[in-house]
Amino acid sequence: MLRRGARVALAALLASCAAAPYTRRSQLILISPEEENKLGARAFQQVLGKSHVDGREQVNGPVEGVGQRLARVAERPDYKWRFVAIDDPKQQNAFCLPGGKVAVYTGIFPLAESTNGLAVVLGHEIAHALARHGAERMSQGLVAQAGGSLLGAWLGGGPGPNTILAAYGLGAQLGVLLPYSRTQESEADHIGLLLMARAGYDPRGALAFWQRMERAAGGAPPEFLSTHPSHGTREQQIQAWLPEAMRYYEASAHAGVEPLPAIAGATPRSTPRSDRAHEFFTCNLFRAGVSAPPSSFSPISNDAMR
Length: 306
Ligand SMILES: [Zn+2]
What we know:
The protein is mainly alpha-helical. The protein contains nine helices and five strands, in the order αββααβββαααααα. The chain has one domain.
């Protein structure tokens, strides 16, 4: 245990620090982009295999159109971009996996309202992938695991270690990993805002979009337990980033704004079943709970998709 933990800790120390695009926040990432993109492609196939891809032109067209404009400013020539609409009016969500694999659930359409709103959603999700948040979370999980192993080894036998490790798991969620994830969510808001503006979408639309999300969510979760910033914090942050985003927008070729087709059967709030399947790589726009730190390299946990 100690040797394995020490090895991971050493690797963590020796790993060169990455930096997130735009924000230049330094990150500890122990997984190569190639490895990450491979995991992303595999996870995408698994999700698509369990989903109903919506090929209707009026649904897929806007997803593809907005997505391609964002992809052009993403500056990732190594990504093989794919944009897919998934027919599921109950899921108000979207995701982008490493390597540029993007899916939009049709349940987000009524909240996005237009291609500009869709650009807010896709900008945020694509930003998670560009900033390699999934790899960062997995790396944090590895370090937390190694730290837990060391702690258990140092504290010796008896009933103690298990109790300590359990407590450590909770501590890792509430004390170490959770605030970091909220940092990532804010960073995805920030980078997403700049991406949409560079792609020619009016970043001021982000405020209206998140206000619609707030109304749909009906009462925000307490900020401390949410991996997303509270609605109030999010709006303040977006206001602060808007001048920077507006400079990009003014310099861009403006995209036309088209209404999205009406999607029947949407409900105000849902807890997506398949969310757990790709939680290592994606955010749930409505996430209110606390997710466990990742326990392995696998992008798909064994009990996913149930
Ligand atoms: Zn997010």
